[in-house]
Specification:
This protein is of the alpha+beta class. Helix content is about 35%, strand content about 20%. Strands 6, 7, 8, 9, 10, 11, 12, 13, 14 and 15 form a 10-stranded mixed β-sheet that branches. α6 (about 255-275) crosses α8 (about 335-350). The longest helix has 21 residues, at about 190-210.
Length: about 425
């Protein structure tokens, strides 16, 4: 008996989960036209499979339309059978973009940024994750022995990434217990987000084959380090000319890049709920955690929310490599929603002609509240409840996404919060560790 080949047609949803349906591979061409049936209320399914109290109920029909440029297929390659994935857009039955489709939301944000600035984004996602089942002793941080302990997995992962066109950059044995990081080369913003969705699925798939369980949970235990998703971005003009760097600027940022960075920083407390969308995300966003606790722009500072990254200034190609990094993101977030929020904030910075705020080079946790306020720096929301309140109260940020999406997002997250409230801390971390 020959088993039918299946391909998964999916989308990364509000919960940061890759959801969809499997179809026979032979039907993919037809499904490019007809789509794969989907339901509006699916947007309200939380990471724990509860359903938020949203507007749709049992009514309505949608389709996921496959994007053949976002196809990731390892079938037919020895040892890699079964990994067949194509990402798509959620549309209504007339072919229009659905208001809660995360890919469409990102496209809209990128179109706005381009319309206002004439610029496009080049993006790379860095993912941190941990491998349960590896169980290495202390002393492995960045160590050769720590890398060699899972070298078979790492080599297969990078081989598969090359086969899928994910352009691997580095595989790193990170600081935390059995923690690793995988990075990819930059590409245009939509494809970078597709790659972010695909790499999470690929890591989990290959980890299982090697006897591990990979988790991208923002924090795996109360006393553990966090797992972040760092988004690196640079600007290019339509003709491909790099536009992020200005050698005459004290911190290297060009004037348009400075306005955009200012927008990211100014509105970050109001859209943080889309970047750090789990209850435990806020255990990572604390001072001295090498994460982000304030809405600051920092010069080469890995505790800044927006970091101006270093480059080798001896290189003749500084302009094309110069970039900024947003560090307040984790893998509970849809890569599309996180990047859409950031792109909208960048566009807002252009629209308001915001000046680049003070670039920090110090430990902000040592500053008094009055000093921070005088410098227009604020502590980020410290709970998901607080972050959702800031999102709800911001007419500007809600306006980026529209009321329907904002209401669905709030209902989705309120259901998640309600579910977690029934469990103690240890159980909460376990639940997130297992679902992400």
């Amino acid at each position: 008996m020959t088993l039918p080949e299946l391909i998964f047609v999916g989308t990364t949803d509000i919960a940061g989960k890759l959801r969809g349906k499997a179809i026979p591979a032979s039907a993919l061409e037809q499904r490019r036209k007809d789509g794969v049936g989907w339901v509006p209320t699916n947007a309200l399914i939380t990471c724990f499979d509860t359903i938020g109290d949203g507007p749709y109920g049992s009514f309505g029909d949608l389709v996921i339309v496959p994007d053949m440029e976002a196809q990731y297929d390892l079938s037919g390659r020895e040892g890699h059978g079964g990994f067949r994935l194509v990402l798509g857009d959620v549309r209504d039955l007339n072919g229009g973009n659905w208001t809660c489709c995360t890919r469409s939301i990102l496209r809209s944000a990128l179109d706005r940024l381009h319309r206002l600035s004439g610029m496009q984004l080049q993006v790379s996602f860095e993912h941190e994750f941990q491998l349960a089942g590896l169980s290495r002793p202390a002393g492995d941080a960045f160590a050769f022995e720590g890398f060699r302990a899972c070298a078979g997995f790492a080599e297969e992962l990078l081989f598969a990434m090359n086969q899928l066109g994910l352009e691997p950059d580095q595989f790193i044995r990170e600081y935390g217990p059995d923690q690793f990081e995988v990075t990819m080369c930059p590409t245009n913003a939509l494809r970078a987000s597709d790659r972010a969705a695909a790499i999470r699925a690929l890591v989990r798939e290959l980890a299982r084959r090697h006897g591990y369980n990979a988790t991208f949970s923002p924090v795996v235990a109360p006393d553990s380090v966090g797992n972040g998703v760092h988004i690196h971005m640079s600007l290019i003009q339509d003709d491909g000319t790099p536009a992020t760097y200005d050698a005459a600027s004290p911190n290297g940022l060009s004037e348009p890049a400075g306005r955009m960075a200012a927008g990211i920083a100014k509105y970050l407390p109001e859209y943080l709920a889309l970047l750090a969308p789990s209850v435990i995300s806020y255990a990572r966003l604390t001072p001295h955690s090498w994460s982000a606790a304030f809405n600051n722009i920092g010069y080469r500072d890995r505790e800044a929310a927006i970091r101006i990254c270093p480059v080798n200034f001896a290189d003749d190609d500084v302009a094309s490599k110069f970039n900024i990094e947003v560090r307040a993101v984790d893998a509970a977030a849809s890569p599309y929603l996180a990047l859409a929020a950031i792109a909208h904030a960048m566009a807002q910075g252009v629209e308001e002609n915001l000046p680049l705020p003070e670039v920090t080079e110090e430990d902000l946790s040592l500053c008094s509240q009055s000093e921070l306020e005088a410098r227009n720096i604020s502590r980020l929301p410290q709970t998901l409840v607080s972050a959702l309140e800031r999102f709800e109260q911001s007419s500007t940020v809600r306006g980026w996404f529209g009321d329907e999406f904002a209401d669905v997002y709030r209902a989705h997250k309120e259901s998640e919060i309600e579910f977690v409230a029934e469990h103690d801390d240890a159980e909460t971390y376990r639940l997130y560790r297992e679902t992400y």
